[in-house]
Amino acid sequence: MHDNKLDNPESGTATPRGPDTKLDYHEIPVIDWRLSETDKPRFLRELRDAMINIGFLYLGNHTVPKDVIDRVKEMAPKFFDLPPEAKDALDMKNSAHFHGYLKVDPSNTNDTDYNYRDIREQFNFGGARECHWRDGDPEYLKLHGEALWPPEELLPGFRDTLLAYYNHVEDLSYKFTQLVSESLGLSPEALDVFFDEDHQKLQPRCKVLRYPGSTDGKLGSGIGAHVDGSFLTYLLQVTDHRTLEVQNLSGDWIPVPPKDGTFVINLGKTLEKVTRRVLPATPHRVLAPTGPPRFSIAFFSSVGLDVKLAGHDLDFPPEVLNMKAARDKKLGVSGEFAFSEKDNELSGEVVLTRKLRSHADVAEKFYPKLFPKYYPNGRPEKPVTGRKEFK
Ligand SMILES: O=C(O)CCC(=O)C(=O)O
Ligand SMILES: [Fe+2]
C-alpha cells in the first residue's frame, strides 16, 4: 500500500519543508533494543526523539533470532526463480485475501513529477489465519485468510521459513509498540485500544520484494516517493544495495544502507492519524538498482479491522506535545490536525475499499456484491497501479 504524497490526495503529506533546521538529519539513528532492558530511560528517550523528529530508525539487537533472519534471507528470494506458471498460479487474482504474487507491470507508471517508473515484483503473505467470513458477514472479514503458498515440493521449507520469520516479527511488533507508547509518556498498553486483545482481528501483512533493476538507461524507480499506510513498517534489507532512501524533514533524500542485525523501522499513516501527527508518517523511496536485483522483506503492522482511527484520543503529556510543537514550528507547518470522514469508518472497510480499488480482478472474482460499486463500467482494461493501495 502506498499513499503517494505526489499523486494521492488522501496523503496530505506533502508537508512544506522549512529551511535548514536541527531536524535536518543526514543519518538514521540506531536504537539498541538491549537498552530497553539495561537502561530503559535512555532507550525511551532515544526512541521518542527518533519517532517524533525523524520518523525512521534502525532497531539493533532485536528479538528476532539471527538464524531466523539468515534463513529467510536465503529462502525468500528463491520464490522469484519459480517457473512462470508456478508464479502465475499464485497470482493475487486467485486470493480473496489479497495475498500472492504481483508481477512487474510495465504499465505501472507514476510519480510523473520525478519521471519514475515503479519496477518490482512481490510475493504478499500473512500469518496462518483462517477466514471466518460467512454469508451475511461484513465483506471486510474476507481480508483475513490463508496466504497462497507454492507447493512444498517446488520450494521445500519456503512456507515454514517465511511463517517463522513472520511470527517473530509480529511478536516483536507488539512489544515494540508498547515501548513506543511508553516513549510518548503513555502507559505501555495505551495503544492497545487500536488492537484487539488476542490480536485475531489484526492482519499484519508481509511482502517479499524483488527489484530487478533498470536496463533501459532511464531514471528508474523501484518504488517512488510514498508513505506507508501501515501502523509501523519493519523492513529487512536482504541484499547490500544502498538504494533505499528516506526524506528528512527538510526535504533531502538520505540513503539508508543495510546494517547487519537491524530492522529499518518507519512510521505509517495509521500511526500518524491515531497520534494526531505527534508521529508523522515518513516519505521514502527505493531507486532501481543497476546491477543484480535487490531483495527486501517488508512487514506492515496494522490496527484491528473493527477499529475507527478517529475513535480514541490519546492523552499525551505536555513534554511530548511540546516536542511536537517545536518540530512543527521549526518546519513552519501548522500543528493543526483534522481527521477525515473515513477515519470514522471501520478500518476494515477503509482497507478493503483501497484494496478493491487497486485490484479489480480480485474485486470481480471474490467481491461480486461490491464490484459494481467500484467498477460501474466493468473491469478496467489496464490494471490500476498498486501504488495507491495501502498495506
Ligand atoms: O524495499 C524496500 O526497501 C522498501 C519497500 C517499501 O517502502 C514499501 O513496500 O512500502
Ligand atoms: Fe514503503
- Overall 3D shape: globular
Main beta-sheet strand count, sense and barrel state: 8 strands, mixed
Ligand catalogue = 2-oxoglutaric acid, fe (ii) ion
Distance between the termini: 4 Å
Number of E-state strands: 12
Total helices: the number is 10
Which regions contain 5 or more consecutive residues with pLDDT less than 50? 1-22, 108-116, 385-391
Oligomeric state of the chains? single chain
> Helix- and strand-based class?
alpha+beta
Family: Belongs to the iron/ascorbate-dependent oxidoreductase family.
Protein name: Fe2OG dioxygenase domain-containing protein
Keywords: Iron, Metal-binding, Oxidoreductase
Organism: Marasmius crinis-equi
Task: Describe the 3D structure.
The protein has 391 residues and is an alpha+beta fold. It has ten helices and twelve strands. It has helices at 35-38, 40-54, 66-75, 84-89, 158-183, 269-274, 318-331, 347-358, 360-366, 371-374, and strands at 30-32, 56-60, 100-102, 121-125, 205-211, 221-226, 232-237, 244-247, 253-255, 262-267, 284-287, 294-300. The strands form two sheets. Strands 1-2-10-7-12-5-4-3 form an eight-stranded mixed sheet. The protein has a four-stranded antiparallel sheet with strand order 6-11-8-9, with no helix packed on it. Strand 8 and strand 9 form a beta hairpin. Helix 2 crosses helix 5 (158-183) and helix 3 crosses helix 5. Bound molecules: 2-oxoglutaric acid and fe (ii) ion (FE2). Fe (ii) ion is lined by residues 226, 228, 233, 284. Residues 200-303 form the Fe2OG dioxygenase domain. Keywords: Iron, Metal-binding, Oxidoreductase. This is Fe2OG dioxygenase domain-containing protein. Pfam families: 2OG-FeII_Oxy (PF03171), DIOX_N (PF14226). Residues 1-23 are annotated as: Disordered.
